[in-house]
Amino acid sequence: MTKKLLELAGVTKAYPGVVANDAVDLDILPGEIHALLGENGAGKSTLVKMIYGLVAPDAGTMVMNGAPHTPADPRAARAAGVGMVFQHFSLFDALSVAENIALGMENPPPMGQLAARIAEVSEMYGLPLAPQRIVGDLSAGERQRVEIIRCLLQAPKLLIMDEPTSVLTPQEVEILFETLRKLRSEGTATLYISHKLEEIRTLCDAATILRGGKVVATCVPAERSARDMAELMVGSSLNTPTKAAPAAGNVLLELRGLSLPPGSAFGMPLREVSLSVQAGEILGIGGVAGNGQDELLAALSGEARSPAGSVWFEGRDVSRLGPEARRVAGLLCAPEERLGHAAAPDMSLTENAMLTGAARQNLARSGWLDWAAARGFAEQVISTFDVRTPGPGTAARALSGGNLQKFVIGREVLQAPRVLVVNQPTWGVDAAAAAAIRQALMDLAADGAAVVVISQDLDEVIEIADRFAALNEGRLSEARATSSLDVEQIGLMLGGAHGMEVAHV
Amino acid sequence: MSEVAPVANRPSGGSISGQVKRLGLRLEKRPEPSAAMAYLTPVLAVLLTMVFGGALFAVLGKDPIDAILTIFWEPLFGEFAFFYRPQLLIKGAPLVLIALGLSLGFRAGIWNIGAEGQYIIGAICGAGAALALYPLESPLIFPLMIACGALGGFAWAMIPALLRVRFGTNEILVSLMLVYVAEQLLASMALGLLRNPEGFGFPGSRNLQQYPSAHNADIIANTGMHWGVVAALIAVIFAYTLLARHRMGFAIKVTGSAPRAAKFGGISAGKVVVFCLGLSGALAGLAGMFEVAGPSGQITIDFNVGYGFTAIIVAFLGRLNPLGIVAAGLLLALTYIGGDIAQSQLQLPSSAIQVFQGMLLFFLLALDVLTNYRLRFGAGEA
Amino acid sequence: MDLSAINPVLLIAAMIGAATPILLAAIGELVVERAGVLNLGVEGMMITGAICGFIIAVSTGSPTVGFLAAAIGGALLSLLFAFLTQVALANQVASGLGLTLFGLGLSALMGQSYQEVRAPRPGGEPFAALEGLPVIGPILFSHHFMVYVGIGVVAGVWAVLKYTRVGLILRAVGENHDAAHALGYKVKRVRTLAILFGGACAGLGGAYISLIRVPQWTEGMTAGVGWIALALVVFASWKPWRALAGAYLFGGLTQLQFNLQGAGVAIPVEYLAMSPYLATIIALVLLSSDTSRAPGSLGRTFHASG
Lengths: 505, 382, 306
Fold this sequence. Notes:
Largest sheet of chain B: 3 strands, antiparallel
Oligomer: heterotrimer
Number of strands of chain B: 3
Strand content of chain C: under 5%
Structural class of chain B: mainly alpha
Helix content of chain B: 55-70%
Order of helices and strands of chain C: HHHHHHHHHHHHH
Radius of gyration of chain B: 24 Å
């Protein structure tokens, strides 16, 4: 019988107002790929942060290899044989690959030797990487490789991966799985955090399912259906959105060969992007993060002005118009980042309603603001979209991710846009809120608006979009009807393993 | 500080077990800023400053209680209060005028720290307009001076504003550098262009107090109530209305709170920069003009006494709120007057008051954390 | 006007001297900013260093002890800033301004009875033996010890940032404090140490003014040098050697306008005196349009949550 690698018993961690982990038990065997499954807010992140020494539990014990595991900080956790690859990469854009890796090591060898070691390990696990490149210039898949190699150089006994595939193309996912299987064959265990059930069924040997901070089940994923696990994870059955067949309408939004330089030092330029969306239609734009999604949204919202003749709205050139003028015309947007971009975190919901609603909702007259009307509009968004909050006076940052996202999307939807562009509408949102948001977008299209959904979640895009186009390195592919596509084809449209080949050492 | 607790399996009780803990104070972010703390912290800061300021005065060999009373009580209720009370308005008006302008910029993350320079230029322009027309008497002269003073300060502040909008140049450094430039310009004016031709070669301009059309006299004699005070009151109402009701005030708040959200909302960052710097420059210029035409009377080498910098403290102490700034402006005016009294009665050095004012800002900034964070005792993560 | 009264060799030598306070303050601030902290209190720390150094040098008779005291004084004042920004999480811009206002007042208070006192003779020119060499003697070897210390600090900072682990960690903290924290580095500790180093350097720069350059004490004698040093960090693109070159350029300009004043050029003194400040503005406009080299977390408050 195999000895356990890591054993958690009764681990509890509470934050003010919420118990993130409630007496969690978890056993991981050596060489096992163990899935940690749960919705956003189920307590997955808190649990792994404790194993990695970023957070200390309030109660419970952790035993690693028979010895108490009480890491005071990540350094101690690494010394005990735990490595972690973060969901939001803990990388330094302005530093080189080798420097980034050295920062994650206790006693890094001199830079010359380290570069050789990086080359060696990356070769061994099929993850090519040039040590001297600046990390800010790498693709998302390559950046993840930096993190993985950083961990592997420490020869960990347990590798924690937090939602690793959310930034990868399907082909890149296959390469990652090969690496993890190779590690398994060498006896390295992986704690694999995800909410993607099919992935887990293909890859993982065991699964622990969390809901509301508690372990609700442990199982062997291959023996359970995805639906079973989904219901365990969510705790109830879900409404799948219903979609009406699109009626062909006029072209409302059109991009003609739009090219734009990147907005920031490590941004992505847009290259000759063309698209058109009709009334009543949802266009899905997929792509791995960092391929120009933010830049595309900025070009559509008016935050970035485009060359004349490149952005057309209802047959009118709006390229040089700012966000306010475009909103007045009927072109509305909801950016990806809720806190700080779509909404001002420290300001109330009323003020945030004023932020984008002023013109279309008549909340201002010749420069003077009507706060009573703004409050009314905020209340309307809150009630229509079931936003859980004490009231419109609450600061945006006090809302949970899902509720704030419902508010942000609802604020734009209720303004009756002709065209609505959303970026990552359900990212980090619980399943019920995600379903509500998708339904709202589909209803909007059914009422005759054109909707553009930029999303990295391919399942989401296929579920709600009529046509699909892929964004890769700032270029947009031809849009194709989603009904004619399968995951394999979409992967190829996204650039396939393209990103993997450019990085030869 | 840290201790390693033995690993113990305590299934119940939920107390500390098996983890390295750090005992002590811990900050925990509040879901929303605390309104109570926003009002309480300035008061606490003033009290703490009195305590530590008293300690400082004791170190300097003065009786701390006596010194604090001299500074805060004497000007208001002492034997010569009838003389000092008007001073409160005379010194408070420029502080409030300047601080109001600065506070709008500070709210938007636009740091005009060159108000001292804009104050000087406003005074030079205002006085220059009057001196150019001397000895003509006309009711139009004073309004012309007001316009020139405001325009001068506005123009001086437009230098950092336009450089920031056009080239992304840091407005903090540019506006500050322009203070030194303005001081040299002031010296040059006092010694050259604006020097009193009947002044027997002494530096300094004609005294505007002796030029009736240009004199910013007390509206009611011996109250300190000159036109600068009226301007400050108008500015308070203006700033309050702007922030509460107007689009530009909202734009300022959003820009400071979340710049990306502001841009997404369609707020032009450049317009906010030009508005905030322009308005604060104009208000500082006005303050300079009212000072040179009234209490000071003439352009001299040492005309500026640091109101532009003290106003930064006023703006923060008033929590960037127009009404708060009135209270803070009067309080700091009090420390100036009380400091003067303490200097003559107790031989307290004038720089001690400067330290005192600096301390006030420090305590305020340190306590400000309580508005957004909660202080917790006990164990926390390292 | 008599321009021939200006000896180019002596002018260059004097320029190097004039550059030293700017250089010391700037290299300290450069380290602070590379750690992700914007400390606008340089002027306040310099003037505090100037008076601390002056008082101790006068009372001990030793300029060396004076410099030591200046470094400690500057560092102690910067500790206040570290407390405000790292512990109380206060806004860095406001705290830095407060530090400058406080430092100006504090130094004036400390220095009241030192207005008429002269500093002890500096001495300590390590290469005095070589000073007699033609041209290069005065330019390279006539300087006070601190001039060479300043250059040494630049070289040291450059080497540490580029080649050592400490430098790498410092840059990492300044670049992305959340990532550095996730890897287990003590962001606040690193930043506090950087702030103390910046304070010590600014203190040394201030003492160079009060002990060597002037050498006596007057209120507000740093006259904006601290602010020029802050500007210098920006247009040096946060690179040590470029800060050195920039400091010499500005030291040179300051010195040149003094010499022109002395030579009685037909430009009024006031306009010559404002030239270093105007030049700073122009340099900022020309050279700072590319701020993409700024450390990623510069000026942002760090607070580890859960």
